[in-house]
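Quick one before lunch.
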Amino acid sequence: MDDKFLRDSFDQIGIELTDDQVSKFDKYYNLILEKNKVMNLTKITDYHDAVTKHFVDSLSLVLLDDDISIIKRFHNGALVIDVGTGAGFPGIPLKIVFPEIRLTLLDSVNKKLDFLRHVCTELGFNDVNIIHGRAEDIAHIKGKRETFDFCVSRAVGNLETLSEYCLPFVKKNGFFISYKSEKADEELSLCKHAFSELRGKLVQEATFELPYSDISRTLLLIMKTGNTPKIYPRKAGTPSRNPL
Ligand code: SAM
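Model of the S-adenosylmethionine complex:
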């Protein structure tokens, strides 16, 4: 393991990792490699790639303008849900760097969540809430709906579909942070209706180059401006088949 590369990469985005955080990232990486032998968690297995494309990428939100004090809110125990977390991205790296967040991980595939339960035990995270289900169903449950300060999601669907999955979880004046590629503008142009129906407003779009790479990440910071009408999200499968 090249801990220097890990530390230097995080330094580049202004995060100085503690020894404990380095050891947690190393453990997480090893757990992914081990599990990847028996199930398809990720195609990214090279250590340097995993650091850049999974770990640092997950934390790229610290580069957003700090008008809304994301870092401070995270340190103060913000409620964060990661929708379609898969092998734990971006949720687990966020929890390693900001252990104070009250994190919920949601995915529709229970095998992945079994892996994440194991990861949380190994990393000593006994306060992570892990939910099996589809966003379309879980977002209607009292105590989950319009509850979170932040919803984060990476690589789960197009922005219209994803907004219908994610915005219902966010409380008024909270934020949905969507991890997108440089094609985000195209997706945004299709999203006007979805945002107005779901009560979302784009407040920042920013593209960053990930350290020691030519890979870029575009983040969309979408604010929740009011209550999402109860009809959303629609029945499971509808948001992806027939986006708003
Ligand atoms: N976010 C992770 C990442 O960036 O590596 C995983 C991305 S993976 C391509 C998409 C994940 O979203 C899968 O684990 C899938 O099971 C989950 N997913 C897709 N649709 C979902 C839904 N409607 N509700 C909950 N999870 C969903």
